[in-house]
Design goal:
The protein is α/β, with parallel strands linked by helices. Helix content is 44%, strand content 17%. Bound molecules: iron/sulfur cluster. It comes from Clostridium cibarium.
């Protein structure tokens, strides 16, 4: 179960009265794995509302030492509402036992890695929002919407990254192998041995993986298959040519 910034699932709770729809987050909601929160609304702010940014400090310094504040583009101090919203969010996390959150990057409440710099000019700086900071401090794992989508995209791509493929990567990196040989590891007398696959097995393995990429994942272009499987274009073409001849 994830706490998710409500705007990512299409709720029009953004300051502008709009949302930040993210299809990967919507999927979690549809699967019943999401609790939606909007800290700014939970803190009592209206929607639409004036945009706000952190000035004179960081989320940490505001929460821990009272240094800095959150102000709207019209200069109104809304720090209290932001802190209240974060506290309400923590209550929801605790009551539901949720230990992970996917939050909208860049927001003065939900930003995980960056926020806007307080000038209301669209300039970003490293930092986090008030709710993101308080959630993290309470032991909740936070992930931005961007990071979550990248993770999903990566896992869709990784057709065959089983253990031996990670080993293969290690071997390639450690020994500077130019050729992308498939390797696998075996445990013998408690010792791990990394070795090449026999040639015919390797060929069949490549064919299987490339066929999966095409048939199961619907990948058409050489570039897509290359990025999904880790094989070079030359290897892919060879396998496809051979398959044609059979
Ligand atoms: S980023 Fe967070 S506070 Fe802002 S609208 Fe979305 S859920 Fe609400």
């Amino acid at each position: 179960m994830y706490l998710i910034s409500a705007c990512l699932c299409g709720v029009n709770c953004k300051y502008s009265g709009k949302n930040n729809l993210n299809k990967d987050c919507v999927k979690l909601l549809e699967q019943g794995e999401a609790i939606l929160i909007c800290p700014e609304q939970l803190g009592g702010l209206t929607t639409p509302r004036k945009p706000a940014e952190i000035i004179g400090g960081t989320a940490r310094s505001i929460v821990e030492d009272g240094i800095g504040k959150v102000v709207t583009s019209e200069g109104e101090d809304v720090t209290e509402s932001f802190i209240k919203g974060a506290e309400e969010t923590i209550k929801i996390a605790k009551t539901s036992g949720t230990i992970a959150a996917i939050l909208k990057e860049g927001s003065p409440s939900c930003g995980c890695n960056y926020i806007y710099d307080g000038s209301f000019c669209g300039s970003k700086i490293a930092g986090e929002g008030i709710t993101a900071y308080i959630l993290k401090r309470s032991g909740v794992d936070i992930l931005s919407d961007k990071e979550y989508s990248e993770k999903i995209e990566e896992s869709n791509k990784l057709i065959y990254l089983s253990d031996y493929d990670f080993k293969r990567k290690d071997v390639d990196e450690n020994f500077g192998n130019e050729e992308s040989a498939i390797v696998y590891s075996i445990i013998k007398d408690d010792e791990e041995i990394i070795t090449d696959l026999p040639e015919n097995v390797e060929k069949n393995m490549k064919r299987l993986i490339i066929t999966m990429a095409k048939e199961m994942f619907g990948l058409e272009t050489l570039e897509d298959i290359e990025s999904a499987t880790g094989f070079t274009k030359k290897e892919i073409l060879e396998v496809l040519e051979e398959s044609k001849d059979e």
